[in-house]
Amino acid sequence: MIKRGGRNTLDSILNLMGEAGVLKSVRRSGWWMIGIKNGESVAEHSFRAALLGYVLAKMEGVDPYPVVMMSLLNDLHEARINDLHKVGHRYIDFPAAEKKASAEQLAGLPAPVRQELTRWMKDLFDQKTRAGVIARDADLLECMIQGKEYADQGHPRAIEWMKRPVHLLRTKSAKGLAKALKQWKSDDWWQHLVTLAR
Question: What radius of gyration, in Å, describes the C-alpha atoms of the chain?
Fold first, then answer.
């Protein structure tokens, strides 16, 4: 059990929740590069990446808890440094900024929480554990799904976002879903329900 902690610890926890809330307003910048004006927020991306991470972990026979947590933590630093598309990465050492922002965000948390979250973020960054690899695959695959949805909604350049990360996927499950994604129609789930309602 984690001790309740003093006022500073409680404030640190609430401050982290406040920062996480900012991600509801931070837009994923890659989408506006191809003309999507009101693209998904970082929080929206993280939510579906976490759900996808859970499914991939179960398919791969790995404990889903760390994968889900890594997926939720993956872009937390963007509350401080914003989302930066790949063109920007060419000019800024974004991984160093991510690490610095993340370390500062977690600094005031109770030691057991801080240590576990820090370890998971390192696993995600280093890509040396199965859970870290699966969480990264979930992040990439979620972006591919979003690209397919935007393409289906009339943004043809978004299909590039669906194709580009394929070679980066490492798990059999993620590769299988990426292959199925090519034929998938993003409105299938609700079109089927409409047919049943008739």
Answer: 18
- How far lies 142's CA from each of 131, 132, 146, 147, in Å? 16, 15, 6, 9
**CA triple 39-140-165, angle to 5 deg:** 100
N-term to C-term CA, the chain: 53
pTM: 0.92
Amino acid at 114: R
Q: In this predicted model, which residue has the larger pLDDT, 164 or 169? A: 169
- 7-197: CATH topology: Hypothetical protein af1432 (1.10.3210)
The token pair that represents 148 in the structure block: 């397919």
Please say whether the beta carbons of 121 and 95 come within 8 A: no
At residue 3, the pLDDT reads: 56
CB-side exposure of 137: number of CA atoms within 13 Å? Answer: 26
- Residue 27's beta-bridge partner residues? 41
Q: Where exactly are the structural domains of the chain? A: 7-197
β-strand partners of 41:
27
Residue 5: the pLDDT is 58
Separation CA 177–CA 140 (nearest Å):
11
Q: What is the pLDDT of residues 35-46, one digit of tens each?
A: 998 999 999 999
Calculate mean pLDDT across residues 66-74: 97
